[in-house]
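Hypothesis: this fold can be encoded by more than one sequence.
Test: take the structure tokens below, design a sequence, compare later.
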């Protein structure tokens, strides 16, 4: 009889403990409890881990391939979908691998120099995650303005693409911001591209996209010269092009450097089929190679910083992350924005608590005043790994 009473009391005790435990969890979740409430997308962090997430005007967007891009050249290659919309309909944004691979086949008209498979990739392609520990600067190269009198050939976007490829080869401290994305952003706000270099627009690009520098330029040519010997059926083609660029610091709104280059025409002599097209392509390659040597030195010397994109309760969202080179545990100094090209006093410090997407992160205040949107961040301390 006593053993039965003991068993009954023990069962009642276990039941009460179980009910009490669930009641406590339901009423107030302790800090150590693994399941917490938060923003809806935080629970889907694994889904966003390999996606490029950008913060534009305090809103988070996921960069996805545009399924309509194959319908025509006027279609943007990528779309920027709000995070909540992507998470609810992400199956509709999944493109079969075979379709993406077939898109890489580029048809080039005979009037335009042909591209290799790697050269033909769009410069708006998202970059792979870098393992280089150095902090990278965000740069945008706008489509080049053509001064060529002939309207049959269009090289502006192709020259910009070639320059990006050459800079990527020479430096691992540069991240390129999509020009089509920025162009679309400005057009939706009624800002014309002719105002791209104005201080107001530069400040906007700096705050919204974290852009450190803008590269704009124009070129003349390529002009081809064709000669043909009397006894030689094959013609010989040479070409020359001149490219001029301006490097603009978006933080100060000032032109940092003006550079120009042109190829030596004596170094270009192409014979045989498509000799004119091959001469033009070689002229562009040589000129860009010469120009990029000086440009990469200027870009690598730019001061690095990032900005606070959003503040949500005690969490701070930053427009830079692991692709830029930030790591969990990094301590960042927060500066109050000063005048154009100036940082105000240090107001606080935050510590990076997580990186999400491809190049965004979040942190928490460890001392000082609460940060504000568009405050400037500089790396203050990095924990040794």
């Amino acid at each position: 009889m006593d053993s039965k009473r003991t068993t009954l009391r023990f069962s009642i005790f276990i039941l009460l403990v179980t009910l009490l435990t669930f009641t406590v969890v339901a009423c107030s979740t302790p800090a150590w409890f693994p399941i917490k409430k938060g923003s809806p997308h935080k629970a889907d962090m694994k889904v966003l881990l390999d996606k490029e997430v950008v913060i534009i005007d305090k809103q988070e967007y996921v960069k996805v391939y545009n399924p309509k891009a194959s319908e025509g050249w006027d279609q943007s290659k990528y779309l920027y979908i709000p995070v909540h919309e992507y998470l609810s309909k992400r199956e509709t944004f999944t493109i079969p691998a075979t379709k993406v691979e077939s898109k890489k086949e580029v048809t080039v008209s005979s009037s335009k120099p042909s591209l290799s498979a790697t050269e033909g990739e769009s410069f708006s392609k998202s970059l792979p995650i870098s393992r280089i520990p150095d902090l990278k600067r965000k740069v945008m190269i706008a489509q080049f303005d053509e001064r060529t009198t002939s309207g049959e050939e269009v090289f502006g976007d192709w020259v910009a693409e070639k320059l990006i490829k050459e800079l990527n080869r020479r430096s691992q401290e540069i991240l390129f911001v999509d020009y089509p994305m920025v162009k679309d952003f400005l057009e939706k706000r009624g800002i014309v591209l002719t105002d791209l270099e104005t201080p107001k627009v530069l400040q906007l690009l700096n705050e919204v996209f974290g852009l450190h520098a803008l590269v704009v330029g124009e070129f003349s040519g390529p002009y081809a010269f064709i000669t043909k010997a009397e006894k030689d059926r094959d013609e010989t083609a040479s070409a020359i092009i001149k490219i001029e660029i301006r490097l603009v610091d978006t933080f100060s709104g000032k032109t940092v450097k003006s550079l120009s280059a042109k190829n030596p025409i004596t170094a270009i002599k192409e014979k045989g089929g498509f000799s004119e097209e091959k001469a033009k392509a070689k002229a562009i390659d040589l000129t860009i190679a010469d120009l990029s040597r000086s440009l990469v030195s200027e870009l690598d010397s730019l001061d690095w910083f990032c900005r606070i994109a959003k503040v949500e309760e005690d969490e701070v969202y930053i427009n830079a992350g692991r692709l830029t080179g930030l790591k969990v545990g990094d301590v960042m100094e927060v500066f109050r924005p000063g005048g154009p090209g100036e940082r105000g006093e240090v107001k606080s410090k935050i510590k990076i608590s997580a990186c999400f997407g491809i190049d965004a992160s979040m942190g928490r205040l460890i001392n000082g005043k609460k940060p504000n949107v568009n405050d400037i961040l500089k790396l203050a301390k990095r924990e040794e790994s």
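Residues 106-300 form a domain with the Rossmann fold fold (CATH 3.40.50.10610). Confidence is low (pLDDT under 50) at residues 15-41, 96-132.
Hypothesis status: open.
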